[in-house]
Amino acid sequence: MAHQKGGDLMRFQPVIGLEVHVQLKTDTKIFCGCSTRFGAEPNSQTCPVCLGLPGALPVLNRKVVEFAIKAGLATNCSIAGRSIFARKNYFYPDLPKGYQISQFEEPICQRGWLDIHLEGHEPKRIGITRIHMEEDAGKLVHSDTPGLEDGSGVDLNRACTPLLEVVSEPDLRSADEAVAYLKKLYQIVTWLGLCDGNMEEGSFRCDANVSVMPVDSDTFGTRAEIKNVNSFKFVKQAIEHEIQRQIDLIEDGGTVVQETRLFDPTTGKTRSMRGKEEAHDYRYFPDPDLVPLVIDTAWVERARSELPELPEARQKRFMAELGLPGYDAEVLTASRGIADYFETGVTAHGNPKAVANWVMGEVTRGLNDNGCAIDDCPIAPAQLAELLGLIDAGTISGKIAKTVFDEMWKSGKAPRAIVEEQGLVQVSDTAAIEAIIAEIIAANPGQVEEYRGGKEKVFGFFVGQVMKASRGKANPAVVNDLLLATLKQHPGGTT
Ligand SMILES: [Zn+2]
Q1: Would you call 295 helix, strand, or coil by DSSP?
Q2: How far is the CA of 70 from the centre of ligand 1 (A)?
Q3: Of 124-133, 225-234, 425-434, 455-464, which one has max mean pLDDT?
Q4: pLDDT of 286 higher than 90
Q5: What's the gap in Å between 375 CA and the centre of ligand 1?
Q6: CA 295–ligand 1 middle distance (angstroms)
């Protein structure tokens, strides 16, 4: 992103609010029984309700309400005892009814917040205005799609899949804050199992409202809305570009117009898509096909009792009860799967810091190298604990343990079996190590001379030679002790 003008960020304050669409991981759609599975044959998962055929009536999916309540509780919202569905009217080919069923007045969750922590800054509280339930639209497919040689088609498999729209207050002041908030929200909805988190398939996407104002002003500038950004990296790029574009425009004497813009990942820029609609353009009105949704306290409390320990609470417990450093606790609670894996490992092994190091090190490396998720990790936490037990017992060195780990990953065998099969047991037997040392010393009289002449650096050479001769199996601590003792002896001495 090259900015010839380089408008002065010091003189302007960006103001950002996010509207996040979270696709819910229910088996069926929000108002009918059709499957929500991604990637099926176009229009194979449809019925009169989601096709918008006349006379078909929507029936609210109870699971969607339960998910919305849980999302609200986890983001500190109040849950409305009564909420209503509204019709949002607009015309587009992927919207068969000519309106989208959403919530406008009286959404299910209101007035919540999330705390974000940017490195080097105090925690900051970001307000959540509301969370409401709505149905998704279908999808237009164009002639670059296989089987569609010319023209465009509409696939209504996605029509009527359940979404939560989470609307933040305009409390965010930089692209970094926006990304931190987004990651936090992502962590929560995936942690609760409400959303599969697949951003490439659009399961978690966001619209960013961006404006800038002079730093000494308390009146927000006119905002532009950037639509449907579906990666953390693109959100950062899109917001940064939009802030700079608006500052340049204002400094050039122009004015920002309220509009909807699209982010193009190939250029890193946003471009105008259409003038921004106001709420009244959608002629919202209560949907007469759906009765008001009444949620009693018992339902809310049942949902609350089903909530798992949330990421922040778990992070604090890892620090307080398991004695982990803050950094480790944060990394190990990045996802619920990682946190569960770690904790099961600790139960089996007993040394939290050792398990933490291996999960953040070898396990994470293995997952990244193989592009696999923690749930598909071929090494169970109990097996990892067994491997660490072998290190504790002095059976293998930490270095050999990494070799064993790789073999466990490939073959699925138990660590002890691998160690025995491949003869990897660490040699701590002093007689065996002394024999190797004697050979090395006899073969390298020059280096022995140097060491005894005061060149202590040569010591590392001897350690290396002994480890090499033992094929890495000699116990390094024993090697050190014995080497030191032997080299300090008078040349004529015996071992
Ligand atoms: Zn349907």
Answers
A1: coil
A2: 25
A3: 124-133
A4: yes
A5: 31
A6: 25
For ligand 1, the distance from its centroid to the CA atom of residue 35, given in whole angstroms, is: 8
Give the distance (Å) from ligand 1 centre to CA of residue 141.
19
Ligand 1 centre from 95 Cα, in Å?
A: 13
Tell me the per-residue pLDDT of 318-335, one tens digit each, with 9 for 90 and over. 999 999 999 999 999 999
Report how many helices (DSSP H) and strands (DSSP E) the chain contains, helices first.
17, 16
**Tally of CB atoms within 10 A around 54:** 6
Ligand 1 center to residue 155 CA distance, Å? 13
pLDDT-derived band at 495, boundaries 50, 70, 90: very low
Ligand 1 midpoint to CA 158 (Å): 10
CA 141 distance to own-chain centroid:
29
Residue-by-residue DSSP string for 28-59? B-SSSS-B--TTPSTTSS--HHHHT-TT----
Rounded distance from Cα 103 to ligand 1 centre (Å): 20
Give the residue ranges of DSSP H helices in 361-469.
364-369, 381-392, 398-411, 415-421, 430-443, 445-452, 458-469
**Of 90-104, 238-252, 311-325, 439-453, where does mean pLDDT reach its minimum?**
439-453
Domains and CATH numbers, the chain: 9-298 (no CATH), 309-421 (no CATH), 430-488 (1.10.10.410)
User: Distance, CA 55 to ligand 1 centroid (Å)?
Assistant: 14
pLDDT top residue among 277 and 5: 277
What average pLDDT does range 115-127 have in this prediction? 93
pLDDT of residue 8: 66
CA of 29 to the centre of ligand 1 (A): 7
User: What distance in Å separates the CA atoms of residue 42 and residue 278, rounded to the nearest whole number?
Assistant: 33
Per the DSSP assignment, residues forming a β-bridge with 100 are 88
How many angstroms separate the CA atoms of 162 and 36, rounded? 9
Distance 238 CA to ligand 1 centre (A): 35
Ligand 1 centre and the CA of 74: distance in Å?
A: 30
